[in-house]
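hi! just following up on the protien thing from before. the input was this:
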Amino acid sequence: MTEERKNELLTAALKLIGTHMDEDENLPRALSKHLGMTVDEMRECGVEAADAPKQSARQRLGQKVASAYEKYQTSWISMTPAELIESAGEIAAVQRMVAELVENASEDDAEYLLRFKNPLEVVSDAWCSANGPSAVIDEELSHILWELSDRRNAETEYELEPEYRAAEPEFSM
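and the predicted 3d structure came back as:
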C-alpha cells in the first residue's frame, strides 16, 4: 500500500469517526475505541491525544511486540531457504514469545520490557539462552521418548535398520 493510499484511508476513517462520535466522546477516545490507535500513532497523524484513554503497560507491550513481529516477518521474507533453515530455532522462539509474552507478563514485567526498543528480541534471546534455540523442554522430550519406546508403534511407520527388523513370524500347525 502506498503512503498516499494510507493517507486517503486515514482521512476517510477520521471523517467517518467524526460523523459517528457520541456527543460526549472526543476524537482521541474515538480513534482509540474504534480504530485501536495508540497515543503515538495519533500524534504521528497530528491528533493531540491528551484526552486519549490511558493504556496499561501490557497493552502498550502488546502493541510494541506486534510492531516488532511485523519487522521480523519482513526480514524473514527476504531470507533464502538456507538462511531460514539455519534460523529456524530463533524464528520459533520469536513466534512462541509473540504468542505467550503479553499474556504471561505482569504489569511490572511489561513496564520493565517497555524500556527496550525491541522487547520481543530481548525476551526471545533470553528464551533461547535458557532453553536452546530448539526450545524443547526436557520434560516434554522425555515424555515423547517414553511414549515412543513404550508403544513401539513407530516401528511400523518408519524404516528400521536391518539388524532391528523383526523376522517374519513363522506359523506352525
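The radius of gyration is 26 Å.
The chain is about 65% helix and 0% strand.
cheers
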